[in-house]
Amino acid sequence: MGCRLLWVLFLITCLISPVGAAQQQAEALPQVSGKAAVLMDAISGEILYSYKADVSLPPASTTKILTGIIAIERTKLTDIVTSGKNPTLVIPSAIGLHEGETITMENLLYSLFLKSANDAAVAVAEHIAGSVPGFSELMNKKARELGAVNSNFVNPHGLPDPNHYTTAHDLAVIARYAMRNPVFREFVSTKVKVIPRADDSDIKWLQNSNKLLWRSKEAIGIKTGYTSEAKNCLVAAAAKGDQEMIAVVLGEPGSVVWTDAQNLLDYGFSEYSTKKAKEAGVSVKEVKVTNGTGNVILKTADNFYYTVPNGDNGSITERAVISKDITAPIQKGQVLGKLYFYLSGQELGSVNLVAENEVKIKEIPLAPVNTLLAGGVMLGVFVAWNVNKQRKRRRRFRRRERAWRKNAIR
Questions:
Q1: Is 323 an annotated catalytic residue?
Q2: pLDDT band per the 50, 70, 90 thresholds, residue 22
Q3: Residue ranges of E strands in 24-85
Q4: Of 139-148, 304-313, 371-380, where does mean pLDDT reach its minimum?
């Protein structure tokens, strides 16, 4: 009886344990209250958590991430911007720009990122592209270049429009790119900024609306957003040790947006490790160059990072794929192949292999001019001598022929 009871308990344990383990694993994943969310390792670019990441949603003022990085790349911070009439017509939030008011691009961008000023966004757009529609074309072009292909932007601020949408994944991609720019990082991590205004009664004191900057020492940005249609939106970034994470939450119903974003970031830091597989500038292979003066050395163009769950000790392997028919001339930095990385046989990604050295075309040596001239003279003399010799031979033949005929007649 006792043995039978032990056997029954053993079977029950076997049946329950897998379910319990799966439940514990599910409970370890962060939960979000919004419509979509993504957690990305900002260094490797790997997605560590995804919830409806490709669903099209209104982004509200997180749009200004793209607006800001375009402005940083296309202008100087010292540029003087003169506000037109259109910025004064934009509904709040705003810094109250006046028509004809002049302000530096730097202070416009502080207004854009900290105060989330919509009038500043329009002033930036018109300064760069002449109009909001023209700037929107730049936004969509940039988004496609970065791989944010499920987005469409029709304004620089994110106010509601049925044709203005993005996804949690696309926002993470755009934010990761923007955070590589040190100027952008400085703006979005600033808590408070006082900007000069011609009228002392105008808004000058700007406080960042990103509460995570005040709550977490690891927080380093990026941008908040809210409209009645989009609800609360947040793109948050944090750095801890040699790791950096980006969390995106869209369509959050209330202040839980801060908790959800923080939970995502904490989950990334606690459950994953970021590792470097290869540094930029490492020589990988030497390749023969057709018609070249020598060989070309291929090196890695960028660092390659990857992310693994803590405790995962899988081995990294590499495979170089070289372009066919590498022919001179070769320029330094020219892309000539890719280096692929695999973790336990699964492809992780690749980096470009570029030329470390220049290779020129091998030239066929030409004879000096004097030698060519002498050769030509000699050839001419030989030809003339040979022609003259042939003439003499024909004359001798004709004389013999005439003498033979005379003898034959006699």
A1: no
A2: very low
A3: 36-41, 47-51, 80-82
A4: 371-380
Tokens of 364: 């066929």
What angle do helix axes 182-189 and 105-113 make, rounded to 10 degrees?
50
* Contact assessment for residue 246 and residue 42, using Cβ atoms and an 8 Å cutoff: yes
Q: How far apart are CA 266 and CA 258, in angstroms?
A: 12
> Which sign, positive or negative, has the C-alpha torsion 90, 95, 96, 98?
negative
Within this chain, domains 32-271 and 279-355 share the same CATH topology: no
Confidence of residue 383 (pLDDT cuts 50, 70, 90): low
CATH code of the domain made up of 32-271 = 3.40.710.10
Active site residue 61: yes
Task: Spell out the residues 6+ positions from residue 39 whose beta carbon is closer than 8 angstroms to its own.
Answer: 30, 47, 48, 49, 50, 245, 246, 247, 248, 264, 265, 267, 268
Q: Which of 111, 116, 136, 350 is catalytic?
A: 116
What sign does the CA torsion over 133, 139, 144, 148 have? negative
Of 61, 83, 111, 350, the active-site residue reads: 61
CA 62 to centroid of chain Cα atoms: 19
Find the helix or strand (DSSP H, E) in which 221 lies. Answer: strand 219-227
Range in 21-25, 274-278, 356-360, 361-365 the model is least confident about: 21-25
Alpha-carbon gap, residue 268 to 248, rounded angstroms: 13
- Tokens for 98? 């006046």
Residue of 35, 44, 64, 299 with catalytic role: 64
Q: Where are the domains of the chain?
A: 32-271, 279-355
CATH number at 279-355: 2.60.410.10
Instruction: Give the relative orientation of helices 64-74 and 168-178 as an angle to the nearest 10 degrees.
Output: 30
Q: Where are the alpha helices (DSSP H) in 29-131?
A: 64-74, 86-89, 105-113, 118-129
- 83: phi then psi, degrees, rounded to nearest 5: -70, 135
Q: How far apart are CA 216 and CA 204, in angstroms?
A: 26
Task: Read off the pTM.
Answer: 0.81
Q: From residue 326, how far is each of 4, 284, 323 by CA, in Å?
A: 75, 16, 7
Question: With contact defined as beta carbons under 8 Å apart, do 289 and 327 qualify?
Answer: yes
Residue 116 is among the residues annotated as catalytic for this protein: yes
